[in-house]
Amino acid sequence: TMPKEPAVLRQNILDTTAAILACGIDPKKCFLFRQSLVPEHAELAWILGCLTHVPRLLRLPQWKMKRTSQNNGGTVGLLTYPVLQAADILLYKSTHVPVGEDQVLHLELAQDIAQHFNKKYGEFFPVPKAILSEL
């Protein structure tokens, strides 16, 4: 949600890819792709954003905490980032999503959006369930 220098962003993409491969992810058994090259993520985020009410996003604790670190009280990108996360989940019709405790509310937003969409347009998106790790 913060502007990045293009060279730094490209390097971050390479570094993240290297880290994923170093963790043992086998590209012969799974798909690795750059999300930014799949326009459907942004397209679905726009559609879902048109179904999501601003007050719902303003209540998210991550918005309240992070907006103070941005100039002028936060950007639209920061406010709508949870809708993009919902699009990332719903685009692939995910049924279960591994999340940390800090992301449970964002997954609940994705669940609410899926239910709202389904009620309005018919059953289309599964309502994803959280997979929380036990430590």
Strand content: 5-15%
Question: Quick one: CATH class of the largest domain?
Answer: Alpha Beta
Biggest sheet: strand arrangement: 1-2
CATH topology category name of the largest domain:
Rossmann fold
Which stretches are low in confidence, meaning pLDDT under 50 for 5 or more residues running?
A: none
Share of helix, binned: 40-55%
SS-derived structural category: mainly alpha
Q: Tell me the count of domains.
A: 2
Count of helical segments?
A: 6
**Number of DSSP strand runs:** 2
What general outline do the C-alpha atoms trace?
A: globular
Instruction: Give me the CATH architecture of the largest domain, please.
Output: 3-Layer(aba) Sandwich
Spatial separation of the terminal alpha carbons: 30 Å
What is the helix/strand order? HHHHHEHE
Rounded to an integer in angstroms, the radius of gyration calculated over CA atoms is 16 Å
Largest sheet: 2 strands, parallel
Describe this structure in words.
- The protein has 135 residues and is mainly alpha-helical.
- It folds into two domains: 1-32; 37-132, HUPs (Rossmann fold, 3-Layer(aba) Sandwich), CATH 3.40.50.620.
- It is built from six helices and two strands.
- It has a two-stranded parallel sheet.
- β1 (96-99), α6 and β2 (129-132) form a beta-alpha-beta unit.
- α5 packs across α6.
- The model has no long low-confidence stretch (mean pLDDT 92).
